[in-house]
Each structure stands twice: as structure tokens, then as C-alpha cells.
Amino acid sequence: MEGNVYVTDVGKQHRIVILSTDGELKKVFGKKKRVVNIKKDGGYFFFPNDIAIQRKSFKSKETERIYVSDSNNKRIQAFDKDGNFKAIIAIGGLPRGIAFNNKVKRLFAVDALGHKINVYDDSGHYQLTFGKQGRDKSSLMYPNDIALLGDNEDDIVITDRQNKRVQLFSTSISLPRLFQLLRPLLPLLPLPLFLLLFLLVASRKKKYIVSDCFIDEVLTTGRLDDFIFEKKKYHITPYIEDFLAKENIAERFLNKLKHNRKVSRSTLVKIMDMYKVDENHAEILALAYRRFIYHPVLLCCNDKLLKAAHELGIDAQTPEVFFGEVKGH
After folding, report:
1. Calpha distance 266→144 (Å, rounded)
2. What is the pLDDT of residues 283-309, one digit of tens each?
């Protein structure tokens, strides 16, 4: 790192300190500020939590960029080796530990509230996410930090805080692991390999269905921007489409909304009769119940909807769960 040591100061200052390897102060940069627009006001921090170093090449020891997880501003900032601001990566959630793989030029960022790891290229473009909330093997509960190990930096070590463990992941894949992932799709072996791989990837993705009560809660608590900034597509019924238009917020979602066709009348009547819900909520439940490839997740907070979703075996999330705002953490 060219003799530089980079330190995050989250005391009163909320800044980055650059020291020599002898501990001599070389530079201090950054000021404390809780920003309103996370895509603006570069150089300001609110609880800078971690630093990752991007070298000029995999074998080089010379620093090209440093990345700072600006945790409570819900973003990562990029600077040159001397602390001059370069870019902002808007994350949402709560970015904590970060690490940069200099072999493949990828930035790994822990989202503690999302219970997941987001991956970005060296231009700040989102690439993929792995990890999910849970107590089982490979699931995460409030992960906090991350480190990359191995000759190619392809072993990923994550501190899984509330599960009280450290987990090891790998970006390389062995043949036994590939077989394990493909085994659920073995009945489809006559299909072309590329289609099998597509089904494997797609089956691990989630399909988010939005209810009116969820939108109401998001608006009431002032979380609309957070909701829109999430890197997700939202599936809506014609009723929710009208609801968003009535609230004058539909156009703010840009291309994040997926419109769905109406459900058959007979299906609606059956759901209405069985779960004592109105027609609009029956349509939302019907959409969430459809399982083809993607895993459906119903976003709602209405007790009757939540109960019906549970009885139908639908994964449902309240705003608190969706945004990771669990009390006591």
C-alpha cells in the first residue's frame, strides 16, 4: 500500500486518517454529515465503517483506489490513494465490511440489515448478491465484516454476527458442488445445458409482490426512497397499479414495476371465500401463490393477508423484515 495505512475514525470526526507505516500523520479527509441524497455530497461520512484497497494490478502493491463503507449514509465512496473523492456507489441497507478482489476486479460489500453480500465491478455497477437471512447453513444473521483469502482471493470469510460464527464461502466451484446445485434439475436433463443453467439461476431469485398496506406503511414512515433504491423488481396487480397512480408515485419507480395480468374470476372467488378477503387482496394472494420458476415473496402488513399467506405457504415479509429493522439490533 505504498507505505500508507488507512484508518476510519468514527468517534466525533467521522473521517479517514492516512498514516505512514511508522505512524506519522500524512493526511486527514472527510467531514461528518448525514446526507439527504445518498448519491450526492461525496467526501462526507456518517459512521465510515471499513476500507478496501484496489491495487493497480493483481500482482502490484501500488494502490489505485480506496473504498470506504459510509455505513449510515447507506453507500460506499471511492477515493484515489491520496484521499481525493472519485465516486459514490449507492447501496441502501447498511454497508459494513468491504473487500476488493484484485484478481477479478470486484468489490464485495456486507449489507448487515439485508443479511447479504452485494458484489460490484470496479466501476461501481451492481453484479450479484448472495446470502439470505436465516439460522441454517450458509444463511446469515446481521453479517458484519468480510475478508478475501487464498492465492486468487477467491475464498470469502464472513463474520456472521448473530449466528455467532464465521463462515467461509468460495467463488470457485468444484464439480461435486456443481452437481449438488444441478441435482434438483436432473429430471430436465434432455433440455439444453444453457437452459438448465438458466433455470438454476432463476430458481434462486425472488419475485416480490407488493400490497397496498405495504405501500401505505412505506409512505407513512417516509421509506419510499429506500424502497425504490432497493435493487429489486416489484410485481403488481392492476389494482396496485391504480393505487400507485392515485398516490402520484407510480412514475418514481421507473422500470422497477412488473405488471401482471388479471386473475380468473373463479380463482378470486375461491380465495375470497376461503380466506375472507376482498377481491383486490385475493388478486394479490393469487399472484403471490403462482410458482413457476421464481420464489414469490409477498410484501404486506395486513394481519388477514399475513395469515392467508401463511396458510397458502407463501413467504411474506412486513416492512420491518424487508428493511431489516428488527428490534434490538
Report:
1. 48
2. 999 888 765 556 788 999 888 888 888
How far apart are the C-alpha atoms of 38 and 258, rounded to whole Å?
26
pLDDT tens track for 38-53:
999 999 999 999 999 9
Of 195, 148, 198, 192, the closest CA to residue 168 belongs to 148
Q: Which of 291, 290, 296, 298 is nearest to 319 (CA)?
A: 298
Q: Are residues 168 and 210 in the same domain?
A: no
Residue 82 sits in the same domain as residue 167: yes
pLDDT band at 329 (very low <50, low <70, confident <90, very high): very low
Site of grid cell 440489515: 113
**How many whole angstroms separate alpha carbon 310 and alpha carbon 316?**
8
Nearest to 40 by CA among 222, 225, 221, 215: 225
Strand partners, 85: 79
Q: What angle do CA 23, 29, 30 make, to 5 degrees?
A: 135
Tens digits of residue pLDDT in 92-107: 889 999 999 998 899 9
Residues 250, 306: one domain? yes
Closest of 95, 8, 72, 78 to residue 43, by C-alpha: 78
The pTM for the full model equals 0.55
The total number of structural domains in the chain stands at 2
Q: How far apart are the first and last CA of the chain?
A: 35
Could you give the CA distance from residue 204 to residue 218 in angstroms, rounded to a whole number? 26
Q: Which residue range forms the structural domain that includes residue 91?
A: 4-172
The three-state secondary structure class of 284 is helix
Q: What are phi and psi of 161, to 5 degrees?
A: -60, -60
CATH number at residue 239: 3.40.50.1010
Give the C-alpha separation, 288 to 314, whole Å.
Answer: 7
